[in-house]
Amino acid sequence: MTTLTPLDLFTIGVGPSSSHTVGPMRAAARFLAELRESHNLADTARVQISLFGSLGATGVGHGTANALVAGLGGASPERCDPLVVSTAFERAVATGSLQIGERDIAFAEDDIALRPLTRLPQHSNAMQFESFDANGNLLLSKIYFSVGGGFVESEDDFGATPSAPDLSLPYEYANAADLLALCESTGLSIADIAYANCVAASSEAAVDATIKAIWSTMRGCIEDGLSSDGMLPGTLNVTRRAAGIGRKLLAEEETGTPVSELSNEWLQAYAIAVNEENAAGMRVVTAPTNGAAGIIPAVGYYAQIFKNVPIERIERDYLLTAGAIGTLYKRNASISGAEAGCQGEVGSACSMAAAGLAAVLGGTTQQIENAAEIAMEHNLGLTCDPVGGFVQMPCIERNAIAAGTAVAAVRLALAGDGSHKISLDTVIETMRQTGVDMSSKYKETSTGGLAVNVVEC
Ligand code: SF4
Fold first, then answer.
1. CATH number for the domain whose boundaries are 15-154
2. Coil, strand, or helix at residue 81?
3. pTM confidence score
4. Fewer beta carbons below 10 Å: N end or C end of the chain?
5. What digits encode the pLDDT tens for the residues 304-341?
6. Distance, CA 385 to ligand 1 centroid (Å)?
7. What pLDDT shows up at residue 257?
8. What digits encode the pLDDT tens for the residues 170-206?
9. Closest residue by CA, ligand 1 atom 6
10. From atom 2 of ligand 1, which residue's Cα is the shortest distance away?
11. How far apart are CA 146 and CA 122, in angstroms?
C-alpha cells in the first residue's frame, strides 16, 4: 500500500486531464521502465497500445495519444514541454516513427487502438501495452489503470489487499472523525498534522519547496490564463473568456467600482483562466484532478487578494488543509470522474477548497469540517458528461460555479459554531454510493447528458 500524503493530491503536470493525460503519460513511462528492466527494450520493434472503456471513449478529446507517445519517449508530466506534448502523436504518425527511450521504432496510427465498448472489470480507465520483436513475437504485455488524479496502478497491484503502508506516518487517520479526534487530542490544526505527515514521507526542505512550487504554478496558471485570448483546441470552437472577463473587470475598477464589489467576478475569472489553460494542454496542477484544477487555485488567490491572507498561509495552511481533506476523498470514495462522475472531481475540489479557505479565515477544526461537508453536499449526484470528450463544456464554467460554492459554504460554516447534523464522513460515503449507482453514461464516457444533447459545431 502506497503511503498517501496531502501533497500527493497536487501534482504539477499538463492538461487537459489527470486520468486521461497525466495518468497515461505515467503509465507509458512505467512500461518503458519495465521494458528496460526485463531487457526487452533493445529487441522491441513495435508497441501496440489498447485504450479501454472511458479512455477509449474520450481519449481523443483528452490528448491521451499525445501523452502516451510523449511518455514512451521518456517525458514526465512534471517536466515535459506542454507544447511539444500537444503534437506528439501527430508527429509520430507523420514520420512513421516512435521514440521509445533512446530508440526509434516504426509507428502507425492504429498502433494506438480505441476500444471504448470494452470495459475491463477492475476499472473503466484501462490501458494495455504490448511490445513485439521484429518477427512479431510478443515480448512484454502490461495492463495499467489510470485511477484518477494522475495516479496509476498496474494489473498486478490493482485492488491488492493493503497489508501495511510503505511508511508509517506520525498521524494516521482513516476518516474525518479520526482527523478531528487527532486535532482535539494533540491541539494541532489539520494543516499541522498534514505538514507533519508530509515531512515524515520526505523532508522539511523538500515539503517546503514542493508547497512553494505548487502555489507558484497555480498562480502562474491563473496569470497565463488571464492573458491568453483565442480559441481552445478541438472541434467545439470554444473561445477563451478569462482574459476578456479580466479586461472588463479592470475597466470597471478604473471607472470607480470598488474592487471589493468585484470579488465574485474575479473569483470566477481565476477559475476559468486555469481551466482554459488546462483545456489548452498547458502546465497546470492537478487539484485533485485536471478537470477540477481551477477551483483550489481560484479560491486561494481570492483569499490572498480579497481577504488579505498572506502568501505563506496560502502555501501552508490553505494547501495543506485542502490536501488533508482530499486524502479522505481519495481513500474513502473517489476523485475520478470515470468512477464517481463529476461529484468525485469538482465536488472533491470544491470541498477541499472550502476546507482550506475556512482554515485561513480562522475557522475552528469543526467549522473547517463543516465547510468541507457543505461544499460536497451540494455537489452530490453531479454527473460527468464532457461534450465531445473535451474538458471544456461543462468543465470550465463548472469550476467557476464550484469556486463560488466553496466560498458560500465557508460563509455558512463560519456563521455557525461548527456543530452540524451531517458529518463530512457521511457525505463522503454518500458520494461513494451515488457514484456506484450512477450509470456509466455519466462517468466520463461522453455517452449521456450534455455530451449527447449538445450539437458539436
Ligand atoms: S464533467 Fe467534471 S468530471 Fe467530467 S471531465 Fe469535466 S470536470 Fe472532469
1. 3.30.1330.90
2. coil
3. 0.93
4. C
5. 999 999 999 999 999 999 999 999 999 999 999 989 99
6. 7
7. 96
8. 999 999 999 999 999 999 999 999 999 999 999 999 9
9. 395
10. 342
11. 11
Closest residue (by CA) to atom 1 of ligand 1?
A: 384
Q: How far apart are CA 68 and CA 369, in angstroms?
A: 39
CA distance 171 to 182: 8
Distance CA 164, CA 443 (A): 31
6 alpha carbon to ligand 1 midpoint, in Å? 22
- For the chain, the C-alpha Rg in angstroms (whole number) is 22
255 C-alpha to ligand 1 centroid (Å): 37
Q: Could you tell me the pLDDT band of residue 128, with boundaries at 50, 70 and 90?
A: very high
256 burial level (CB within 10 Å; 0-12, 13-18, 19+): exposed
Closest CA to 300 of 286, 288, 316, 284: 316
> Within 10 A of 416 (CB to CB), how many other CB atoms are there?
13
**Can you read off the three cell numbers belonging to residue 268?**
470566477
In the chain, domain spans: 15-154, 176-453
Locate cell 476523485: which residue? Answer: 335
300 CA → ligand 1 middle, Å: 21
- Determine the residue of 21, 348, 379, 395 to mutate for testing ligand 1's pocket, defined as the one with the most ligand atoms within 8 A of the Cβ atom: 395
For 365, counting Cβ atoms within 10 Å of its Cβ (0-12 exposed, 13-18 middle, 19+ buried), the class is buried
Please enumerate in sequence order all residues whose Cβ is within 8 A of that of 250, keeping only pairs 6 or more positions apart, or say none. none
